[in-house]
């Protein structure tokens, strides 16, 4: 009977050992799964962080560009009208017509009613003319003719409008503007040139 109890106890202990071994294996299995899951999560987090770093770098570069453009804009805004106009005119005289065109536009946007407005329109028109953008040139010369008919740039604006129409092959409109130069500014140098151009159109 005592042996039976011992055997029973041994059997019970063996059962507990088997259960403990089973549980140990389950824990090990779960730990392995958990470890793998954690590893994947860490890997995904690292990828997400790398992506965020890339985005942040792009944002930082974009901000730097915005700051640089703002600094250039502020510098241009600080320039006195005389300086800006002289810079534009110097660009034109140097043959940098696209730069001159854009700078004269800045003169006009900063000082739409300033003392340089008629001249800025005129020289912007000349810049377009040199770039063979004759319609745009005519539009700028038209600003001088319509808004500043008594300015010193008006005779030139009439003459160059006529010349632009010549370049476009519209002789009739060219003649009209040459006639206007002669009628409105008969003693001007532009009138003398207009007469010669009229003769060439006959």
Give structural notes.
With 202 residues, this protein is mostly helical. It is built from eight helices and no strands. It has helices at 2-78, 81-93, 97-110, 117-130, 134-147, 154-167, 171-184, 189-201. Helix 3 (97-110) runs antiparallel to helix 4, helix 5 runs antiparallel to helix 6 and helix 6 runs antiparallel to helix 7. The chain is rod-shaped.
Features:
8 helices, single chain, 202 residues, mainly alpha, 86% helix
How many H/I helical runs? 8
Instruction: Quote the distance from N terminus to C terminus.
Output: 144 Å
Helicity, as a percent range: over 70%
Provide the β-strand percentage band: under 5%
Average residue-wise pLDDT: 85
What letter string, H or E per element, gives the SSE order?
A: HHHHHHHH
Number of strands: 0
- Specify the biggest β-sheet: none
Shape: rod-shaped
Given as residue ranges, the uncertain stretches (5+ residues, pLDDT < 50) are: none
The structural class is mainly alpha
Radius of gyration (CA) equals: 42 Å
Give a brief outline of the structure.
The protein is an all-alpha fold and 202 residues long. The chain contains 8 helices and no strands.
Provide the fold topology:
Layout: H1 2-78, H2 81-93, H3 97-110, H4 117-130, H5 134-147, H6 154-167, H7 171-184, H8 189-201
